Every structure is written in C-alpha cells, then in structure tokens.
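hey so u asked for the seq, here:
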Amino acid sequence: MATSRSTSNLDERARHLLRVLVGRYIREGQPVGSRTLSRDSGLEVSPATIRNIMADLEDLGFLNSPHTSAGRVPTIKGYRFFVDTLIKLKPPKGADLLMFEHELNDAAGDPKALALSASTLLSDITKLAGVVTVPRHSHPSLRQIEFLPLSGKRVLAILVVNDSEVQNKVLEVKRDYTQDELTEAANYLTEQFRGRDIYQVRHRLLNELKRTRESMDRLMARAIEMAEAVFPESMPDSQYVLAGQTNLMGLEELADLEKLRGLFEAFNRRRDILHLLDRSLHADGVRIFIGQESGYELLDSCSIVAAPYATDDDAVGVLGVIGPTRMAYERVIPIVDITAKLLGRALKSQNLPA
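ran it, structure tokens below
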C-alpha cells in the first residue's frame, strides 16, 4: 500500500534497512531480497515485515524492482538519500594516507604533471576514472627559446617554460632563415621576455609592431614573425587530465555498448565534463552528481564525485572520480576530499604558479 510519509519522517528501522540494502547492492551488484536483507540487517523482525518496509521505500521512490527479480535495487533518489544522510565514510588512514602524499609530492614540478599524477592516483586507488583540471590560473612563464631551421620554410621552436617544461612547435614561416638569423631572434626574445607570461609575449610584440612598424630593424621584424607563429594568442580554456577511463570498460553497469560509447563521447567532447567540474569549483567540500543529476544524458549511468583544490584559500581547480552510480561512495568520497587537500598543499609547497 502506498504511503505518504516524507523522507524526513523515515523511522530508524526503515533508514537502517535502506542503508544495508544500498551497501549490499554496491558490494554485490545484485537485487536484494527480503530474506537477504533480514539476515544482513540484524533486526529481529520477520521477512514479511521487511517486505512491507521495502514496499514503503519503493513507494517513496528510494527503490525499484527489476522485472526479472523479486529483489530491489536503489534508485537515484535512494542513492542520494544514502550519500546525504545514511553513509558511513571510510577515509584512508596510515600507510595509504602517506602513500597519497608521497605520490603527489614526488610529481614533476609543473601544474599539468601534478594534475596528471593526481588523476592517476585517483584512478589507481578507486579503480575508476580520475579527472583533474589543470590549475586555471597557471601562467607559464618563458625561461628560454631556441629556433632551429628545417626544410621547406619551416622552423622548429623550442620553448622552456616554468624552469622545467619543454614545448616544441614546428612553425610555417615566410622564407628560409639561416641558423644565425634564428639565433639572433631567439636571443632577442629570451632577453626581452624572460620571466614573462607566454600568453602576454605575442600581445606585447604586436603592440610594439604597431608603434615602430616603419623604423624597426630586420632583427625586430624576424622576432615578431617568429613570435606570431610560436606564442599563443590567449590563454586556453580550462583543461583537464583524465586517467583510468579504461577501468570503466569492465564494469557490468556500463557493459551496454551504447552507454559506454556515449560516456567516451562525453570524455572526448570535454565540454560537458568541464562544465560539471566548474560547478564544483566553489563548492564547500565534496560535491556529488548521481546519474541524471548531472543534466547530461550521456552521463545518466554515471556518478561524479568532485571537490575543489586550493592554494591560499583560492580555489584553482577541481578533481574527481567518474564511475557508475553503483559506486563505493563511502570510500570514494573521502579519497576525493583528501586528494584535493593534498594536491592544493603540493602546489603551494612547490611554489607552482596558480
């Protein structure tokens, strides 16, 4: 019989049974029947009483019954009530916590490498997909630039940024240049713009071009041509690094080829994932999107557990875990929370730009 009880009025017995059922389903992946729930719950009540409570929970929208089974499984609403009200978190401790910190502190000294290390860590620990946005306020600064002549009016540009990161780019230029000409231009750009944000170099040089077009010498002209080709016009949109997406291919919940294809399409498009992560940038701790809560149909079979990471109380990025709705939330939530704190601490301790 249907019930009009609100979720806030669920009695302790109903809450306990819902907690046990969701936990069992997360572990086993099979619909949970009343006999199993009676045995697991530890309550001294009859299976008939448990069936009545399960029917009430189903009427409230917390559970549903697959057609092929007498057991029940949690709905998105059931998962939401579980993570908001019933969950008992299991944070990593001792050796696991030290391992987290060690992995991040040993990461290479640039923001993207650190983000990749964090996403790989999340993936390895949870056996799901780990995602981390590169610090959005990261400003790579120029340390040195070199040019090498190639055939066919092409030049290889080699940039060293942030003291350690090397970027290579093949440039299409208007004519063939000698090595001496390229060395002169490289020395000029390095001397004039060492320590500058690389996204500002092109803008500054083009402004200089407007002021001195008629009087500039050949060296300046060469430098400007090279700068137009090698330096980006503006800072790119937020980027993220993703690790462990192949972990999702072996999960029963995503075994449907169309679901899996849709999920990987979302990864490739990036925009939807970035939008979800951006919604978590100013969250107070961990934020969870379960199934259709994301607002993106391609992610209906997934949950995302995300948290911002910060330096000096300024949120500079978001990290998280992507997996099926049948996720071990009690483990994943504290792992995401702790990794976010450790990543922010690592960025600050390494004095990386953020």
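The chain has a mean pLDDT of 82. The longest strand covers residues 314-324.
lmk if thats what u needed
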